[in-house]
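In this section we walk through a basic example: taking a raw amino acid sequence and producing a predicted 3D structure, encoded as discrete structure tokens. The instruction is simple. Fold the sequence below.
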Amino acid sequence: MYSSLQLTLKYLRYYVTAANGKGHGIHSPFVFELVTKVLNDKTNYEVYRKVELQRSLLLGNETIIEVDDFGAGFVKGLKKQRVVQQIAATSLKPKKYAQLLYRLVQYFQPKQVLEVGTSLGITTSYLASAQPSSHVVTMEGSPAIAAIAQQTFEQLQLKNIELITGNFDETLATVVNRQLDFVFIDGNHRKEPTLRYFEQLLPCLTNASVVVFDDIHWSREMEEAWEAVKLHSSVTLTVDLFFVGLVFFRKEQKEKEHFVIRF
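The resulting token sequence is shown next.
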């Protein structure tokens, strides 16, 4: 993991060199529309208020739970006592990016959605709210954290979520027999597992599928994973927004293109 200073310097470099966030100078019609209709959509959707209220409740939740953590730094059998509000403060995706996921799902209208890394369920709630007719499968390593996420879903009355608990190395195999239209990978910030999950999910993806990787500049390992994804033969287009990366597989895209866009 990069230090706060290293990450700040990387972000400043990205911000200065990235393409204009309003779409100026972007010659791909597909990406231009993505920027203008999704990235720059300033609509204050009603669901934002509802989900952010749940975030506020989690940030004030002083319940202590025992957590199994299968992410970066995982030690088998190790349980940690953690306060829910601390998990919320450090693990939940900032609303800017969680709400971007909402708009992406709203725009692409996927039927089958997969999230690898539920955490406390805020991003899941945005994914599920954006397309109520979709089926959202979300995976969480820790049963205690998954239980809190389930409470969030119930508070928001979300009925289209299937929550799977356990080590991703084992649970991911349960979804590779179905088509996936939209995937958000935020479960393990290490190069080898990230690329393994990607390879495992590739047979489930279609020409129109969208894969979003979280924290692509979080560490050297994640940057290496992101570069490997960009170079993969099945990938035709990527969009680097610094904190997340969007991956597309559109065969009508004759030449690979990689965009870095200010967001």
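Looking at the output, two observations stand out. The chain has one domain: 4-260. The radius of gyration is 18 Å. In the next section we compare this with other chains.
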